[in-house]
């Protein structure tokens, strides 16, 4: 069975329980597991894929909380290390009636930001079909950037599909121009680049899906560009010349939009790991992105196989 691997910073998220209060005002919060790449790992594992997660956590209550949930999910933990020296990161998000919640991070100098790049060469790449990376891990420290570039290199040398989500987090970068340059550099090594439309506008200056796709397809390695258009769906274009728009799914109530982009990655990569067509993989991405916004945590709306097929059947 083809296997999947990702590297990232796991976080605890405290989600405000009272609606439309700022993080200054909110008084009660519920605790969940988060972190972009971990969201993708948890989602893929829930869909019965074989998943490896690479990271470093602090040996502290939040690290324990995360490890516990990773172990329950059956994600492989061989490449997860623990440290007493640094702490596990966390963040807060408020709850809003419309739009995206505000987020505030406590992650500077976290355990994951001290990941040792030498660990990348210890990974067994032999059964991996897809490796997923995002710009977040690279933003955490120069050593993490080195680790990510090395992981990309290993993937490229072994012809393993490398999927890349920019996941722009301006608060983590020195300034906007550094963020743009570094993110586009990481994207150039990817087989599949999947930005959100707003991210793409920041990264290359256009909201035209075709222009965005052509910008990234100019790079030698990139074969597929998928642009996430929010609730509308996604546009794709390939180096071989096919392109199209795959419509999104409607949900009745949007509870929280955080985790939708990672939900898209879960569906898309699930399709690829299970040898579906590109269109089918994107449609799974749209479906799980939609399901993600119906729950409060960042990844608790992701489905198992039964829930996914029930959702697809009732939304035909
Ligand atoms: O890792 C981070 O920096 C976070 O902010 C934690 C969040 O769980 C995801 O990043 C959600 O990402 P989206 O799916 O793009 O909404």
TrEMBL record:
Pfam families given in the database record: PfkB
Domain Carbohydrate kinase PfkB, residue spans: 5-303
Listed SUPFAM superfamilies: Ribokinase-like (SSF53613)
MF-aspect GO terms: ATP binding; kinase activity
Stored InterPro entries: Carboh/pur_kinase_PfkB_CS (IPR002173), PfkB_Carbo_kinase (IPR050306), PfkB_dom (IPR011611), Ribokinase-like (IPR029056)
Keywords tagged on the record: ATP-binding, Kinase, Nucleotide-binding, Transferase
Lineage: superkingdom: Bacteria
Family assignment from sequence similarity: Belongs to the carbohydrate kinase PfkB family.
Stated name of the protein: 2-keto-3-deoxygluconate kinase
Taxonomic lineage of the native organism: Bacteria, Bacillati, Bacillota, Bacilli, Lactobacillales
